[in-house]
Specification:
The chain has 13 helices and eleven strands. By secondary structure, the protein is α/β, with parallel strands linked by helices. The longest helix is centred in the middle third of the chain and has 18 residues, at about 175-195.
Length: about 350
């Protein structure tokens, strides 16, 4: 088992290893010692796969368990689902000393975490990610949110978990597309801060996936610890996300997050090279690594559409968006950019006339 300490305002540990779900109850009881009740939140798919085992583990540690399941998919990470969850917590009479356990992917973690941040003005919660993407992205760092029709994660709060329990055995039930989406975030952390990690992933999924997850979490944890509220260096974690969130929005959420981030990383790398802001080998290395991991590198939308979609991005500050530029593999720079300059920047990363298809 790998243990990574996240030194935020409220420090916590991320545990990564196979078979950890069986110990979820004891681990939750240790992290939330005042709790007598646990609300177990998952989508309907994960509830069928792991809900019983997780509930049994929690009950075995002496916690009274209430279960809430919602329809799977990003399209259900809404205010309506959030409202139903809050009403469920109130009906179950969870108190301020009890806890919420998020069992599932990033949608579940974001939704349950936001409920934990706001129910009774804040209760403890535990992240138990069951996807590779959630393990290295949404479960760590304390960002919680739901979507609006106008954009992703526009309503949310910072609320750090009390603990993250990542059982890598749950990845065995993931489809290839979901595993590839997780690899996009792993590669992103390599581009940001660790060329050796990037190179180890560039040829495809590693044999020791738990070690790669642990290293990726360590990178994210170090960045988050230095900028918990996302006002400075933490913005580097948005590499590929400005264009990526635009791709998600324009696709009507039919392009999953990991694929959208891959498209965004490839696009910004090409644009950075075209505008003289990164090493010549960066775009080709990023595109090759993404393609070898089954991820798309071509954008199905033109620069005008992308720039328009960014106007609804939560990372916009006034008339400026901070772009993350990969100067070299392992080093990125933050580049505040006027929204009026985004279309030209995106266009420089697209072939003449745009990229008409969602190709790989």
């Amino acid at each position: 088992m790998h243990t990574i300490s996240i030194q935020t305002g409220r420090p916590y540990e991320v545990l990564v290893g196979r078979g950890l779900l069986a110990g979820l109850g004891e681990l939750t009881a240790q992290a939330c010692p005042r709790a007598t009740r646990a609300a177990l939140v998952s989508d309907d798919t994960v509830a069928m796969l792991y809900g019983e085992a997780a509930a049994a583990a929690l009950a075995g540690a002496g916690l009274s368990v209430s279960r809430f399941a919602f329809p799977h998919g990003e399209e259900n990470k809404t205010l309506a689902t959030y409202g139903r969850l809050l009403s469920f917590l109130a009906r179950e009479r969870l108190t301020r000393t009890d806890c919420i356990v998020a069992l599932g992917g990033g949608v579940t973690g974001d939704l349950a975490g936001f409920a934990a941040a706001t129910y009774l003005r804040g209760v403890d919660f535990v992240q138990a990610p069951t996807t590779l993407l959630a393990a290295v992205d949404a479960s760590v760092g304390g960002k919680t949110a739901v979507d609006l029709p106008e954009g992703k994660n526009l309503v949310g709060a910072f609320h750090q978990p009390a603990l993250v329990v990542c059982d890598t055995g749950t990845f065995a039930t993931l489809p290839e597309e979901a595993l590839a989406c997780g690899m996009a975030e792993l590669l992103k952390h390599g581009v940001i801060a660790d060329e050796a990690l990037f190179d180890s992933l560039a040829a495809g999924r590693p044999a020791d996936l738990a070690a790669a997850v642990a290293r990726s979490v360590e990178i994210k944890g170090q960045i988050v610890a230095g900028d918990e509220r996302d006002n400075g260096a933490r913005q580097c974690l948005n590499l590929g996300h400005t264009a990526g969130h635009a791709v998600e929005l324009l696709s009507g959420l039919t392009i999953p997050h990991g694929e959208a981030v891959a498209i965004g990383m490839a696009l910004v790398a090409r644009a950075a090279h075209a505008t003289g802001r990164c090493a010549a080998d960066v775009p080709a290395r990023i595109e090759a690594a993404l393609a070898r991991n089954g991820l798309p590198v071509r954008c199905p939308f033109d620069a005008h559409a992308l720039a328009g979609a960014v106007l609804s991005d939560k990372k916009r500050r006034g008339d400026t968006v901070t772009l993350v530029i990969p100067e070299a593999i392992g080093r990125c720079a933050l580049c505040p950019t006027p929204v009026g300059a985004l279309e030209a920047f995106f266009a420089s990363g697209l072939p003449q006339g745009g990229e008409a298809s969602h190709g790989r």
